[in-house]
Amino acid sequence: MSASEPGWLSQLRARAEQPPRRPRDALFIAGCASPVGSIEPGLADRLRADGLPISANGEGWQIAGAADSALGEVARHLSAHGLCGKWRNELLAVTDDTLRRLAVIERAAVRPLGIATFAVHLIGFTPQGWVWVQQRALDKATDPGQWDTLVGGLVAADESEALALERETWEEAGLRTDALHGLAKVDRISVRRPVREGYMVEHIDVFEAVVPEGMAPVNQDGEVARFDCMKPDDLIERLAADAFTLEAGLILARSLARHGQRV
Fold this sequence. Notes:
This protein is α+β, with helices and mostly antiparallel strands and about 260 residues long. The protein has helices at about 5-15, 40-50, 65-80, 160-175, 230-240, 245-260, and strands spanning about 25-30, 35-40, 55, 60-65, 90-95, 100-105, 115-125, 130-135, 145-150, 150-155, 180-195, 200-210, 225-230.
């Protein structure tokens, strides 16, 4: 912690790097020497007892067989027994600790298995340097009603980050990335923390762009309650009041600092 860093920002940093609430063992898939996630021993024992293709391997637990089908079987079992989030019919990439893609898995199952996810966020500025932000819909499964960056979402298994950003920008804000000015990747942050379904590990690529004069975000998918356009000083006040999601708070604080704004 820097002596000049405000307490709210130090708390955000600490919350973004937390160990699991309960012990977890490394999780492997057949043919890979590096772990792809982590699992609570009790859950692993339950899966093994239920006949799932998982066994102890000396370093943790290993899922046997063809990775996609074995992980699919585990994911369906977790869902059928209420041990994961809502089934989304969305496949995410499964990677090792070098971020090499090895398999795919249903989105609902990644947190119980401690599998890393990848996301994109877009910070949208006005030409005058104000910042566009969104309030998440009140029925969102995570962080309902909290404030967020202009756009944010997970990268699907069959998407590049550019395609994911293009899709999310349209779905959440009704904007086309090719209509924005100065679009560029500016940062990457990682978050590791316990969540209700298990353990979250997420790597977030952050983009910035200017939303041209006369253009405003309009939600398309029902996942945004409203948008606001804020002066940097007002944004900092709202960040300090813990009105933003953890990820958005870190992303926006780092962006403001990059642009010379004292937080």
